[in-house]
Zinc metalloprotease
Amino acid sequence: MTLLLSIIAFNIIIIVHELGHFIVAKLCKIQVLEFSLFFGPKIFSIKIGETMYSLRLIPALAYVKLEGEEEESDSERSFGNKSVFTRMAVIAAGPIANILLATVLLMVIISTSGYETTKVGKVLEGSPAYEAGLREGDIIKSYDGKKVYAPAEEMLFLMASKGKEANVTIERNGNEEELSVKPLVIPANRLLLGFRAKESYGKESNVVSSVISKQADENNNLKPGDKILKIDNQEIKSMPDILNYLKNVYDQKLKDEQADRNKDDKSKESNIVLNVNVLRDGNIVPLQIKPFFEQGRSDSYDIGMAFAPSVKGGAGDIVREAFISTYSYTRVSIYSIIYLFQGKFSFAEVTGPVGMVATMNEVVQMVPSMMDKILSILNLMVFISIALGIANLLPIPPADGSRLILLALEAVRRKPLPVEKERMIMAAGFVFMMILFVVVLFSDIFKIFNGIGV
């Protein structure tokens, strides 16, 4: 059921995109030859007026076919014979429809569960945020020199900072203040002792709450209540101390060993033995612990704070916050693309249609009630719809953005690009996009079958 809902949700985003092209083409008196749901062999079709409405076999995607869009036509109502600005409007209508869909969905979400703010709800004592001076009730205005309108932006800028110290502008009691925070770096590939601490930061963050790995039980004899005092004579006062020490051990002793391992070797064990002193029942107990290796996809970063719960408001608040959130998520999509090409994010993290549906399905399965499932799908639809709209504006053939560039060039030159050249550009772009699609598709499938989050 959840998988079906995820597939339907993804297809709604694509259909709305094509409806944008379709509606504006109709309004501009361009002849629409076909509007098709899905692709593949035709199952059913009906002609209403001049337009054929089709349903095809493979339940994914949609498309609109316009007179004179891909071939020359003498018809006054052909796409190619309309003005440059009319054609630009038709092309831009798809991405704009995706962004408008996101705004409508945000109104539904906000009317049901409220809207997010950048007000700080909790700061963990001993965390980087706490040490920097951030406190509950502060309003985050910017992170690393970039304005923040929603929590998603702060999290994006935190990830893009790659753990470097960043300036954070806050509002406190009506006054703006500048703080400097140094995030905790959690490496993708790291050593673990296999326990859960009582706290993430602070005085009890080096106290064992529970042993979380069966493998850890076999490799050490940590017990709930143990307070870790030293590792190899290195004094330990908090969880960050443990993480930093294990990172140093990994960098010095295990990194090369893991790099040299056979790719088929899925062993998590290391040959390292750590001398650990713990405080247990008032006595210092020496232990020898064999840590285990965990391999992730990318480093993560944390400053030890959480935003305040969502706020409910009236009709005016709902509309205003829906537009603010749309703007915020649009910025997130644009910055994500920029960071991707800057190398701050990995292309291995790019997700295609299969991965998007899998992510939707995974998230939906995690929530208990049907209402929560629906809200989770709607939230993901907002992100994906805006991301699709922005990605389609990239100047990469055959995306809508590349066609807008060609039309802008035509407006400047006051004559269209020769049809042969335009077809060559689009064909080259299509080959590139198909190669990229296949690579991303296999990447998505690999992640799913190997249990890696997409």
Summary: The domain at 116-188+296-309 is CATH 2.30.42.10 (Pdz3 Domain). The CA atoms of residues 271 and 290 lie 7 Å apart. Residues 419-449 form the longest helix (31 residues). The chain has eleven helices and 18 strands.
